[in-house]
# Entry
Amino acid sequence: MLHFLKFLQNPNVHHPKTIPLALITEKIINISATAIRCSVSTESGKVATWLDELLGHVASRLEHPAQAFTEFTLDRIVSLHTCALYTVARLESGTLYWWYELF
# Structure
């Protein structure tokens, strides 16, 4: 709830998940979403994933804030693809990486 109040107080923040997902200073370049899951990648090579809060406490336990992975530093993400259980990142080289959360 506190992050939602900060969202309302800051005109430069356009989504209530921006602050808790450490995206405030990031430029999002890829986004992919389903009905309950969303993943983004940033210009600096970080990725973040979150789930719909209607899933209750499970959603916050399965999301992760923007973080850099060494695999994405030299081989940049060109696209993201999501389904309800996982996200796939396609890199410039054609390599695929995926991560998932189990309910």
Notes: Residues 24-100 form a domain with the Thrombin, subunit H fold (CATH 2.40.10.360). The helical segments are 2-9, 57-62, 71-74.
